[in-house]
Design brief:
alpha/beta, homodimer, Arc Repressor Mutant, subunit A
Chain lengths: 206, 206
């Protein structure tokens, strides 16, 4: 596992296999995977070989075993503690997102610079931003979701990196580059919609 | 403008230029853009030439003019009406997201199959899912944001496509392929976090 392409394929395998499990599948064939994900089946078999997953073209692969192996590679044997910075509507929705915990992701706190939002007694407390550096160090937090207003995004990212956070999922409209200190994955919802609007409008006129 | 790479660059230009505007910039040089977006400056100039944007290496390009031209190409002269399907926490947060309207995107309604969530009198009404096909046809809706539970995602996507929606921004964990009827952009938040966790854990151990 050395590049981003491989890790993305791994996540796509996992996603597909979990979906097949909900349909009652026990075994899967590399051809099924390659058709669905639009990659070659030899690449699928090569990846599985690299992960140490055994199986064959005729008998298929055991889905449970592949998923266990993938979780092992992803380091999912321990719960990953994540914080949310900026507790507006999107931030609060993510703090309470039900899809995280079954993937071993636990949101442990929210942070906001608005004192009126602070609520330390909750299951998932909202703390003032001033407490972030101490919290991150004490709890050894490595991952943050950033949903702050655009104007304070750069400042917040710097604060996270300086506190020792190594990965940021960025929901602000500003596209940040990863640095040596911090890896940034950007999700720009407006961008995605504008892209769709362009494609759909173009289809209408052609 | 013929491929997805070009439209994504266009959106990246727009994003960067809007950011520079907030800093007080009036002019921009292709070299600045190429450095920031990590593409060649000749490609930037070629894109601008294709869009009919005039300017030169020495004098720079007028930011207002580029942005107006980009919005024209993106079809942003008219307000784009978008619906949100599934009004859980994420859906409701997106219904009220402040970043859309300044980009000419208006959320006109939410839809849910839970009657207790229906509230027709609001600024942005929440209607029952049964009313979706009629609403989409009547209001000529082309774009939907899908935030429904995983189990009903496929059914919902089919319903949207059959109603005439041409573009879907999919927040469910299932990765859908685009078809002739409907273009799907997938945003998988859990995926993005798992990817970050993997990268950050790997950095710790190397």
């Amino acid at each position: 596992m050395t590049n981003k392409g491989q890790i993305l394929r791994l996540l796509n395998y996992k996603n597909l296999l979990k979906h097949l499990q909900t349909l009652g599948f026990k075994k899967v064939f590399s051809d099924n995977i390659s058709d669905t994900l639009e990659i070659s089946s030899s690449l699928v078999r090569k990846d599985f070989g690299n992960f140490g997953i055994t199986g064959n073209r005729k008998g298929g692969y055991d889905i449970d075993s592949i998923l266990a192996k993938i979780d092992e590679i992803l380091g999912k044997d321990e719960i990953q503690k994540v914080i949310v910075v900026g507790t507006g509507r999107i931030g609060q929705a993510l703090m309470n997102y039900q899809g995280f915990i079954k993937e071993g992701i636990q949101i442990v706190a929210g942070f906001d610079n608005d004192f009126s939002k602070v609520s330390e007694g909750e299951d998932i407390p909202i703390l003032h931003l001033d407490k972030l550096p101490e919290f991150v160090k004490e709890k050894n937090i490595k991952i943050a979701i950033m949903c702050v207003p655009q104007l304070v995004a750069k400042h917040t990212l710097d604060m996270l990196a300086n506190s020792g956070v190594g990965g940021v999922l960025n929901f602000t409209p500003i596209k940040f580059q990863s640095s040596n200190e911090v890896t940034v994955n950007n999700i720009n919802i407006v961008h995605e919609l504008e892209n769709l609007i362009y494609i759909v409008n173009k289809q209408k006129t052609t």
